[in-house]
Every structure is written in structure tokens, then in C-alpha cells.
Specification:
mainly alpha; globular
Length: about 400
């Protein structure tokens, strides 16, 4: 059941004024909710990182968080109170979450994993960076190096949350979602303390609204891109996919008051949220191009020529998925004569038809596809670290 939306007055960040007006013409209630949360962060996680910074040495942060996460049912007695509250609240599984529905999403995800990855990289992530989210990342990031890491983190989260038991308290996806939540909170604290962030203009860095937009982009909106690439999610499976993301979003700190609940509402949230956002600026251009140029490295292309050829292909696919207007605003290369998305659709659908006739080939293809997904999401030892960034600019931070 949704929490009641608080109707108290709030100041609209200056950069949102025009988009907010346009969004209110489409859906005033949802637009109001979105803009209200552009000024709010994640109170539980924000208190946790502030308390950790005050009482725990940076080189002990990993241990403090890991001990609490690993013993979420009975945290150590010396656990900082705010961290204990965060972990305990995140271990409460909502009544509406249904593991059987989640399993339907798992089967559909594994059947379409290569198209999910393609839609994520060429569509959903790039569209996400058309928004003010890009400013938070650009201020903090070593662009290309962190672009590869960010893609790996997104791919790892997608993979883990659709594994059976992954989202159960103590599961790998649950732990990863909590880690991402704490990293966002730490980055939010560093950005708020910085002269580089203009709160009256831009609202809260990595706001609750932006967490919602990201979850909507990676769930409902992503299903649109997957379908265009030849994916075969049924409507029931699309709703199941969003069902899993709804739970993931809550673990990551998105308030229930603004959370979507099915495929249609996730798509609606993305539409209204994107309308509220200001037009892409230089930060968006930098981050969108970073993602496209990082993708070939993620996919294992090591030689310069191969990377450039694959980047050109991804630019074309991305342009077709996100549309010429947004692609032009990102300064993506002009469209080629031969369209790639229709060809990918036909190839993927033909392959699916052939695999149904040859079940053994289907099994081998599924294993290879899953192995490729694991390779693309391999973060090495850093996957298991709960260390947090220690400085605003990532290149000056302790390893995390």
C-alpha cells in the first residue's frame, strides 16, 4: 500500500521549472511527486554514511558494513546505530513480493539476456544520462575508466537480481543493492559539501527522484528497447520483470510513495520524469559518449580498431533506439544508411525460431550467453568490497 504523499510546499529547483510545467500538463500528480523528490535524498542511508564518517576510520568502513550486512539478522553490538537501522529495515521483505512472479522474470531474462544487455547499454543507460543524473557522475568521475566499471556494475546488478534467491536478505543482489545505496549516499554527502553543486539550481544530488528515474529506465523503459531488438517477453513477463525491479528499488532506498508497481506504471514514471528533466547539457554529452565508448571494452574488444568499429556500431544502434533528437543533442555520429535495429530484430527472432526446433542447440546457446553475461559483469575483488569513496573527485579517493 502506498504511503500518503506529503503535500507540504517545496521550492522547485530552477533548472526544472520548464520541464515541470510540461509534465504537469500530462500528469499533475506524478509530476508533483517527482519534483518534490528532486529535493530529497535517502534519509536512512544519508544518516548511516554521516555516522560512519564521524566514528569509523576510512580503512575500517568495509569491515563495519560487511559485518552488519553479513549478520543482518543480529548485527554486532558495536554497529553504528544508523547503519543498523538501515540494514534491518532493508531486510524486511514487502508483503507484495512474490518469488514465483520473480521466477517468471528470471526465465524471461535468461532467455533474452543478450538483448537485455543490448537494450541496457544502447538505450536505457544512455537515456538515463540525458537527465541531471549526469552532472553528479561527471563531477565525480574519471570518465572512461569509470564508464567501464559503471557498465559492469549495472550488468552485475541485472544478473544477480534475477538469480533465484538473489534478492532475499543476505542474497548477492540484496547485498549489491545495499552497497550501491551506500555509495550513492556517500557521493551525495561529498557533492553537497562541494562548491561544484548548486542546490537551488539543481536540487539534491543523486536525489530520490533520480533513483526512481533510473529504476524506471532499467525496468519498464528497458522492456521497450528489448522488444525492438527482438526480445520475446510476454506482457505477464514484463510485469514480472518490473515486479523484481520494484523490490530492488525499495532496497536501494526509493520511497514506496513514488514507486511504480507494474510495467505500465514504470513506463509512465519514465515518461513524466524525463519530461520534468532539463535538456541535456555538456555533462550529459560527456557521460552518454563515455558509456558508448566504454561498451566495447565491456564486451571484450581489446584492439583499437575493433573497439572503434564496435563503438560505431553501438552509436548507430543507440541512435535508432533513443531517436534522432536525443542522439543529436548528445552529438552522436550521424545515422548510417543501413538501419541496424530492424536487422537485429530479424536476426534475433530467426534465431529464437531455430532454437525452438533444436532444443539441444538452445541449451548450449543459453549457456554461452549466460557465460558472456558473467564475463561482462566481472568486477573482480571489488565486487565484494563495501569501501566507500573518500573524496569528491574519484581519482583522489581511496580505492573503493
Amino acid at each position: 500500500m502506498r504511503e500518503p504523499f506529503e503535500q507540504q510546499a517545496f521550492d522547485t529547483p530552477a533548472c526544472y521549472v520548464d520541464g515541470y510545467k510540461a509534465a504537469r500538463a500530462l500528469d499533475p500528480d506524478l509530476a508533483d511527486r517527482y519534483i518534490r523528490y528532486t529535493t530529497l535524498g535517502d534519509p536512512l542511508a544519508d544518516r548511516a554514511v554521516e555516522q560512519l564518517a564521524a566514528i569509523v576510520e576510512p580503512h575500517h568502513v568495509h569491515r563495519a558494513i560487511a559485518q552488519t550486512v553479513d549478520h543482518h539478522h543480529d548485527p554486532p553490538k558495536d554497529t553504528p546505530e544508523a547503519l543498523r537501522e538501515l540494514i534491518e529495515s532493508s531486510a524486511v521483505v514487502p508483503d507484495w513480493f512474490d518469488p514465483e512472479i520473480a521466477m517468471k522474470a528470471t526465465r524471461a531474462f535468461l532467455r533474452n539476456s543478450d538483448m537485455v544487455l543490448g537494450g541496457l547499454v544502447g538505450g536505457a543507460i544512455v537515456e538515463g544520462f540525458s537527465t541531471l543524473i549526469s552532472k553528479s557522475f561527471r563531477i565525480r568521475s574519471r570518465i572512461i575508466l569509470n564508464g567501464v566499471r559503471r557498465l559492469k556494475q549495472n550488468t552485475l546488478q541485472l544478473t544477480e537480481q534475477f538469480m533465484p534467491g538473489g534478492l532475499e536478505p543476505g542474497g548477492d543482489a540484496w547485498k549489491l543493492s545495499l552497497r550501491i545505496r551506500l555509495v550513492h549516499a556517500q557521493a551525495r554527502m561529498l557533492l553537497k559539501q562541494s562548491d561544484e553543486w548548486d542546490a537551488p539550481e539543481h536540487g539534491m544530488p543523486l536525489s530520490a527522484a533520480h533513483m526512481l528515474l533510473g529504476a524506471a529506465a532499467f525496468s519498464g523503459r528497458l522492456m521497450h528497447h528489448v522488444a525492438r531488438l527482438g526480445g520475446d517477453f510476454s506482457q505477464e513477463e514484463k510485469d514480472a520483470y518490473v515486479h523484481v525491479w520494484r523490490y530492488t528499488g525499495l532496497v536501494m532506498g526509493i520511497p514506496e510513495a513514488i514507486m511504480f508497481h507494474d510495467h505500465a506504471s514504470a513506463c509512465r514514471v519514465f515518461q513524466i520524469a524525463a519530461t520534468c528533466e532539463p535538456p541535456p547539457d555538456d555533462d550529459a554529452i560527456i557521460m552518454a559518449n563515455s558509456i558508448v565508448n566504454s561498451a566495447p571494452i565491456l564486451l571484450g574488444f581489446k584492439e583499437t580498431k575493433e573497439r572503434r568499429e564496435m563503438a560505431a556500431f553501438i552509436y548507430q544502434v543507440s541512435r535508432e533506439l533513443i531517436g534522432n533528437d536525443l542522439a543529436d543533442s548528445f552529438r552522436f555520429p550521424k545515422s548510417r544508411f543501413v538501419k541496424q535495429v530492424p536487422l537485429l530484430f530479424l536476426r534475433n527472432r530467426a534465431e529464437k525460431a531455430a532454437l525452438k526446433l533444436l532444443p539441444r542447440l538452445f541449451a548450449n546457446r543459453s549457456i554461452k550467453r549466460f557465460d558472456a553475461l558473467l564475463d561482462a559483469s566481472d568486477l573482480g575483488e571489488i565486487e565484494h568490497s563495501y569501501a566507500l569513496p573518500t573524496t569528491l573527485h574519484d581519482e583522489d579517493s581511496r580505492d573503493w
